[in-house]
Amino acid sequence: QAGFVIVAPLEHGYVYLADAFSPFAVRAMHVLRGDKTGVVAQVLAHSLDTVKGISRDVSPDTQALCNQFWPGLLSVTLKPSSVLNWDLGDDKELDWFNVRVPKSKFIRALLKASGPLAVASASNAGEEPMLKIDRTQVKDWNVAVVFDNGALKSGPRSTIIEADAGGVRVVREGAISVAEMEKVAPRISMA
Asked: Does the global pTM surpass 0.90?
């Protein structure tokens, strides 16, 4: 919450984390990655209750999917709460954000203490996930702290869904299959 960027391990790669409510920290994270203007950061949250507090129009199907697959590799695109005033890299132009609750107990404890965090791969934009801290890329003077958990295992990408008043749609099938989600939310469709 002090506006710093940190590096930490997620399920299948090291990431930058910054206070989602600090446009300066989010922008610093994008600069570290070499992102172009307009790239929007994903958000990590501690729990579904937190997500419901920062979003609107969370349908029963969306809640059921989150209850089933969180914590885990389900990323959900939602509309932000109308009282939020944050800039995840879009200059506050977009009326959506992508969020997930990660499996890592360490990261969830961090999220419980800090609140929602903006997240982006510690790799340069367009590169594969960083599975081991690369000191030529992640320099200690660029970030407040580096949590090094050694070499991480590669794995599947998250499944991305978008949810609004019109329903729930699969944007990208990843770690969680459409068939698995249909068991929980039979009306789910492909985007």
From this structure: yes
